[in-house]
Amino acid sequence: MNTFKDELALTEPPADEASIRRRSLFAGCGAHAIHDGLTDLIYVLLPIWQSQFGLSFAQVGLLRGAYSGMMAGFQLLASRAARRWGRERLLVGGTALAGLAYLLAGQAGGLTVLLLALMLGGLGASTQHPLASSMITDTHEAGGGVKQALAQYNFSGDIGKTLIPGLVGLLLTLLSWRASVTLMGLLGLAAAGLLWWLIPAQAAESSKPAKTAKTISGKGSASGLRALIVTGTLDSAVRMGFLTFLPFLLKAKGAGTAGIGLALTMLFVGGAFGKLLCGYLGARIGMMKTVWLTEFTTALLIVLAVYLPYLGLMAVLPLLGLALNGTSSVLYGAVPDLAGAGKREQAFAIFYTGTIGGGALAPVLFGSLGDVTGVPVAVMLLAATLLLTLPLSWSVQRGLDADARLA
């Protein structure tokens, strides 16, 4: 009876290609789950760090923004570095660095060390999105099924966002925050070792177009792509800003540490299903209608989050997560069509940089605003900001329609 390693050793091309596709998908999804989980774990820890070290809301926003800023700022550099040193080394090294960052955070005695740890974590996390998504795309494109594989990749990130913050929320009822954070650092190091073994050699090299790969038809739309990037940036800024304030809203309504962890888990569960549901919804009713539906719903529910009591807020969090995260899936799917043939990787890198950059700035800007106006007013302004995406999505749709006519 053939074992898994026997299957990998088969010399027939179809078997080899299937094994490469499968292992690349597992590696990319695993990297996405670990990195996104470690990234969003920060939301559980922010109230603890604020209380432990006497931080202001601006300093809390600085901590969150430092991680996201490093992650956004070094993505293009990570893509270029992979051409020289290979995807495997960069992706494994970045995952290990994220784990080491949490080990350092577990020993922090103040804001300076925390800030340094989160900057290192963001630097490690910058490798994941461009390298894992391009690895999956390259290994699946020749045989088809790229969109399905990327959908699984996107979904896996939300699985990590659900499991890791929820796990730490439970650990905090048994262990100190330092011990819990240290365990997550060890998890990151273990994930790096698993990726080193799992990534197939054929997928470890930097991106090279496959001769049999299908290419995107159409010339794309520069104006539509610009509108899409701005839409994604605003959507991400509001999402990260709200996630930064949500623990404090919950704390004001009487939630404890375990309750905050549970609330984030419920939000991220809704977000995971939102990415799948809104992807199908966008294909059925169109990008613009889906964005209008999800963004208006998100704005309404963010306003309600300020006024609802604790149990009422907990009840709507899955729906809020569905709308809050669902938009990103629809926007992400529009990038290839607007980029045009031969420009997809660059467009994805810019799109990721813009959206994560918006997410990095939002906690700092709205955190400072929260110090002046209070959390409820800052959250209401987040909801108002989200409405700016509605006219922008109309410009994106015009670009998609123009590209379809030229294709």
TrEMBL record:
<dbReference type="GO" id="GO:0005886">
    <property type="term" value="C:plasma membrane"/>
</dbReference>
<feature type="transmembrane region" description="Helical">
    <location>
        <begin position="227"/>
        <end position="250"/>
    </location>
</feature>
<feature type="transmembrane region" description="Helical">
    <location>
        <begin position="53"/>
        <end position="78"/>
    </location>
</feature>
<feature type="transmembrane region" description="Helical">
    <location>
        <begin position="177"/>
        <end position="199"/>
    </location>
</feature>
<dbReference type="InterPro" id="IPR036259">
    <property type="entry name" value="MFS_trans_sf"/>
</dbReference>
<dbReference type="InterPro" id="IPR011701">
    <property type="entry name" value="MFS"/>
</dbReference>
<feature type="transmembrane region" description="Helical">
    <location>
        <begin position="290"/>
        <end position="310"/>
    </location>
</feature>
<dbReference type="Pfam" id="PF07690">
    <property type="entry name" value="MFS_1"/>
</dbReference>
<feature type="transmembrane region" description="Helical">
    <location>
        <begin position="90"/>
        <end position="120"/>
    </location>
</feature>
<feature type="transmembrane region" description="Helical">
    <location>
        <begin position="347"/>
        <end position="369"/>
    </location>
</feature>
<feature type="transmembrane region" description="Helical">
    <location>
        <begin position="375"/>
        <end position="396"/>
    </location>
</feature>
<feature type="transmembrane region" description="Helical">
    <location>
        <begin position="316"/>
        <end position="335"/>
    </location>
</feature>
<feature type="transmembrane region" description="Helical">
    <location>
        <begin position="256"/>
        <end position="278"/>
    </location>
</feature>
<dbReference type="InterPro" id="IPR020846">
    <property type="entry name" value="MFS_dom"/>
</dbReference>
<keyword id="KW-1133">Transmembrane helix</keyword>
<protein>
    <submittedName>
        <fullName>Major facilitator family protein</fullName>
    </submittedName>
</protein>
<keyword id="KW-0812">Transmembrane</keyword>
<dbReference type="GO" id="GO:0022857">
    <property type="term" value="F:transmembrane transporter activity"/>
</dbReference>
<feature type="domain" description="Major facilitator superfamily (MFS) profile">
    <location>
        <begin position="1"/>
        <end position="401"/>
    </location>
</feature>
<keyword id="KW-0472">Membrane</keyword>
